Structure formats: C-alpha cells, structure tokens
Amino acid sequence: RRVRGESPSLVVNKKRHHIMEISNKVRHLIFALIHLANCALVIGLTHVGTLRSPTSSLYLTYGTALHLNPTSQQFLDSFQIYILTAIVAGLAGMYHLWCGTVGNSFYERMLKRSENPLRWVEGCFSIPIMGLVVTMLAGVIEFFTLFFVVLIAMSGVFFIMIMERINGNREVIEKTFLPFFLSLVPLAAVSTCTL
User: Fold this and answer.
1) 125 Cβ neighbours under 8 A, 6+ residues apart
2) I need a surface site. Which of 51, 60, 100, 107 has the fewest CB within 10 A?
3) Are 120 and 179 in contact (CB under 8 A)?
4) Which CA distances in Å does 127 have to 32, 41, 178?
5) Does the predicted TM-score (pTM) go above 0.85?
6) Pick from 193, 70, 57: which is nearest to 137 by CA?
7) Helix/strand/coil for 90
8) 36-48 as b/e: b if 16+ CB within 10 A
C-alpha cells in the first residue's frame, strides 16, 4: 500500500524487493526439499540393502597403477561410504531450509553486505566430507592422510570466508585475493611433504 508522500518509483522498488524476498525463500525451500529428499533416499536405500554393494566395487582406479590391498578392501567394504554422501546432502538441505525460513532475515541482511557466513559454516563440514569420499574411493585409508585431507579442505574454506569478510562491499578494483592464495599454502606444504 502506498504511503502518502511516497513517489511511485519508491513504491515500485518496494514491491520488487518484496517479490525478490519471496522468490528467494521459495528457491531455498525448493533446494532444501531436493537435498533432504536426496539424503533420505540414500539412507533409505542403504538401510534396505539396495546400496549395500561392496564399496570397493566403486574404487576409482587410475589406469593399472593403483590396486587395493586386502586391508583397504576389507575396510572400504565394511564402511558404508554412502552415508557420507547422505550427510553432505543433509547439511546442504538444512542450510537451504534455514535460509528459506527462520534465518531468512539474517541471510538477506548479510547478503546486503556481500557476505554469507552460514554457507561457509556448512562448507567447513560438507567439503571435507566430500574430500574424504573421493580420497577413500581412491583406496587411501591411512588415518593421518585422511586427517590432512580434512584439514586442508577446512582451511581452504576458512580462508575463503575471510576473503569474503574482508572484501565485503568493496569495489572490484579494491578487492584482495590474498586469503585465497594463503589457502593454497597448507595444500602446497602437505604436497611437498608427501613427495
């Protein structure tokens, strides 16, 4: 409703903003539904046995250079790696559900500052888990190697979150990518140590 003294253009802008808020909520709720349905489907199929085929059958081989040793194969087959993919989908679903419901006002407020901190909080968990899945499917089950995979992934997300926080609403020419390059330091360090 138009308030006395408001210009028509201001009224139009308010309507557009209101429509965008609703469309953002709907978009987040749709993504939440997709991710949570995916999570439930994976858990359900794993529970009834459809996805309980040996994980080693999914083993990612690169030519003929790598082969699973018996210990690795036994571990992978006893560990239901599908559950990790369900956790990733569940985390993404909860993030979108929060943004589309109770956390929408906070989400919109942070977007005006060009920030989205909860995305990085969710990413600190889901991205390392995805890294674990790929690493384990490559036949790596050594504890410290998996630990460093998680550490590198989390540090990368952390540095990118810092970059977003520092840059905020800065002009493009004023933005800094230093945190991004710093995020490559742990990766380079671990890679060098494993050579």
Assistant:
1) 91
2) 60
3) no
4) 18, 21, 21
5) no
6) 57
7) helix
8) bebbeebbeebee
